[in-house]
Amino acid sequence: MTKEQAKLRIDELNKLTAYYAKKYYDDDDPEISDFEYDMLMLELKNLEKEYPEFISKDSLTQKVGGTVKEGFEKVEHEVPLQSLQDIFNFDELRAFDERVKKSLENMEVSYVVETKIDGLSCSLEYKKGIFYRGSTRGNGLVGEDVTENLKTIKTIPKKLTEPIDITVRGEVFIGKAEFEKMNEERALNEETLFANARNAAAGSLRQLDSTITEKRPLDIFIFNVQKSDDLKFKSHIESLNYLEKLGFNVNPVRVFVKTIDEAIKEIEKIGDNRDNLSFGIDGAVIKVDDLEQREILGTNYKTPKWAIAYKYPPEQKETILKEIDFQVGRTGVITPMAILEPVKVAGSTISKTTLHNEDFVIEKDIMIGDTVVIQKAGDVIPEVVKVVKEKRTGKEIAFKMPTKCPVCGADCKREEGESATRCLGVECPAKQYRNIIHFASRDAMNILGLGDSIIEEFLNRGLINNIADLYELTLEDIASLKKNGKKFAQNLFDSINSSKNNDLYRLINGLGIRNVGVKAAKSLAKHYKTMDNLMNASMDDLTSIDDVGEIMAQSIYEFFEQEQTKDLIKRFKELGLNMEALVEDGADSRFEGMTFVLTGALDKYSRKEAEEIIEKFGGKASSSVSKKTTYVLAGEDSGSKLEKAQKLGVNVITEAEFDEMIK
Description:
- The protein is an alpha+beta fold.
- It has 5 domains: 3-54, Orthogonal Bundle (Helix Hairpins), CATH 1.10.287; 74-310, 2-Layer Sandwich (D-amino Acid Aminotransferase, Chain A, domain 1); 316-391, CATH 2.40.50.140; 429-574, 5' to 3' exonuclease, C-terminal subdomain (DNA polymerase, domain 1); 595-662, Rossmann fold (3-Layer(aba) Sandwich), CATH 3.40.50.10190.
- It has 24 helices and 22 strands.
- The strands form 5 sheets. Strands 12, 13, 14, 15, 16, 17 and 18 form a 7-stranded antiparallel sheet that branches.
- A hairpin with a 3-residue loop joins strand 15 (371-377) and strand 16 (381-387).
């Protein structure tokens, strides 16, 4: 490599590592595996070592990757939270041992070997034994104040067993079983799966709303004393044992060793046993045990000279992709699934894994019959890494997404700009649980008492199979769910039957037409007056309505073209559900033809309550300001919408003026 080529490659690696680090540290949404990132960093370090004149101050070899997320207070760490130098073989570990001994003038050195927890590093500060502040590592010098989020983690003691001042460092993580359960639930709800447990933990801890963090199964292991004026220790292992007595959840895998060869044996032992650990690791950490020796060794700008991290390579195996099946999720998304020749990877036998979507299969050029390489992402989720194309025989079969739903036979469609292909069938059995939850929800048919668990039990017992079946439930059927009692059964029975008389917009919204929410449902009901008129509407007619764009119009038109939809509406009519928009006697339409935009915080009303009042009086609530806007209702801390209204000359009213208008 010439000097010029080296500079070009270093520049390219700086851009790549900065981009992938941002996705990993700041967005909690990695695009490549840890191992691939480590290899890029290793290449960059080696080139910078050979060509030091090209080292940039912005290179990630010179600093920690994270930044402070907007919305969090900054915390300056009294003691920097440094990262560790990574190594990938035992020769490098022996070289580390030689450097340590040389710097210590051949003093006798012992080490502590610990698991390298795959999570998010943070600092916990205690005053007189009371937890008062916690922060993320950030860039090592400045982190984010996430105290309220950390308080939701049950294994963080709010009060220590002794009233001391101390700052400790730990790793927030999500256990393997808990992570799998989280992703199973997200898969059922067709939410984006977390790429790995580390990013799930980081994303959970860095939520601006601590109630979201509280719902995530976060845990923590403490692994270091950062600062304490009250305590003096001679060794690291002594400090860890003491932290345990204070009530901290200390890293359970910590082994004192006298030589680097003993350390290597422990690293191998951890590697052999990593599949049996309840938490994910991405390596082992080797630390000098004697704290005075650490002081002599000191630190570099980014890493300590007394510790190093051994990274385990991901285990990969080849196997045959025998078939591609299709799984239909609860919102109709059709996911291709690889059926594999069973193969053991990272401690478990893999026979099936997701292929995500059509784009993923095309990008990796996957065919049925291919030899593929499998690994576990974050040692948890099995994934197809690549195809071994040189092993193709010519008998492989090209992949095709289905045009008909594999469960119900209805049409499938992939909308422009989306990666997902969906079943359009309203009565598809795979979608019924989610369909019924939505149908019964507050903004749809508002069936009080019909919660998720009740719906699930009705489905499991075969008492219902779709939304129309709700209206054929008898009082005895509901009462057969004995745990809920007779009063509950009567109330739910009455609520189901009274919902037959709901306004048409509730039924339209309850049907779960893609891209149609409650606001659009109200516009459709107001325009068409009856369900039959809506069902017979043309594309041109649909796009002429306010709040209905071309994509939404296409969804509505295709929905009512389906035979399953026609059968469902026919059944609803037979069951006595209202099919017309209700007109209140003497309805007050004082806001007819007016458009309101709300901005800032109101005292008396929530945003939703104010919008409902506007719509009740025949007006329309919009989310954006334009020349067609009649009024902007501005509360406290109004922002860009208020500024835009003032520029356009739109009438701005206060909450008090709005009150006068609705009296």
